[in-house]
């Protein structure tokens, strides 16, 4: 069976397989590049690149994407091997009925590697047709590194790469044609503002001209954005069946839910340059992203992060299992409606309706969303998605949010490192099964050090010591918790219960209390 590439599109359009597929219009395959995308992972392809294809098919945006692989490892070679073409399968319940859309996306022109092809990246960045830069470098990605050097090939951090390419555009294209619109998709508060602040700091660090710095500050646009779509990635467990059904091999195939939402805060001209909303897509341009972000991050993302480590320790593997579990599912529902919804500003009936919609999305029978995948970079996720709800609930009510406090204990129990081979770090589920813990190496080394205590009995005093040390790490941003001894007491008690009684019984005791 042949691999999916551009030559396959004609064959598919003439074959019986095309009845399963939404093929890109032929005239969309040779459009000019208008978007530079830092990140080639599953999310950006199933979200940004798929939405751009849908807009192109309606003759709305009329532009393609050049993808930059920002780290040494990634999918650039696989993307280029398929001429940038890949399959996106979106599944869900629509108007009470199951629905599946299988779309071949042809919006990616090509992929370049920042490491090994940086000079080519800079040349592409000089293209005046490119007006927009999107990115998804994880929550930890929009940060300056002490290793950043302007002349490195490439500079180390994502903001340093942005600074360098802006400088090259400025010198080549001038003030008017060189300016860019940045729409970062990282799930951090005010992501556009954070990126701009990092770039301005680097401009000063690199001792660049004041005229250039003023141009970045005043002429380039850094939008804050919010993205919402559950993307499960490559469907390893059903790929053989899908390949037979589709009639081709696609190593870049990606699966997501049907639902999508992109909220972009910025000047009114942004929607004129990037008019995806005109294609009937759920893309909202607004002057204030705050209410959209708080609702989504605390309820949807916070619901995930609060529950997945507990559910995974308990032996569950997928989000649908988690929501439908009689104990874990009840915990999640109570956590959202009793402890998170009260912290979200706005109309409570609308917020509660959104929370109910989230639970229904979590039950999507067509999406196998791996709990272990969601645990990636849980430290930064906990700081952004969970701890603010916890602190606000206590501030608003004066009561302890016991379910949210249990979620912090669940995070710490998940990061109980039992083995490392020098490169990877591992923990153990309640049933003794080993799992990888994926986070910044500095975080993992830190967690290993606090769990490698002389007293391995993990009594209540030992658990409190672990809690206090762990929450003191600056990346958790848990100062508000440390100031409330009752919170530390509860988290320590819950951690002790998780270690001694297991996740299911610990959760049961909290929801029954």
UniProtKB/TrEMBL annotation:
In Swiss-Prot or TrEMBL terms, this protein is called Tagaturonate reductase
Classification via Pfam families: Mannitol_dh, Mannitol_dh_C
Q: Among its keywords, does the record have Transmembrane? A: no
**Record-level GO BP terms:** mannitol catabolic process
Q: Name one GO molecular function term.
A: mannitol-1-phosphate 5-dehydrogenase activity
Keyword Thylakoid assigned to the entry: answer is no
Q: Keywords, A to Z? A: NAD, Oxidoreductase
Matches recorded under NCBIfam families: PRK03643.1 (NF002969)
Gene Ontology cellular component annotations, sorted alphabetically: cytosol
Give the Mannitol dehydrogenase C-terminal domain ranges: 288-424
Q: Where is the Mannitol dehydrogenase N-terminal domain?
A: 34-271
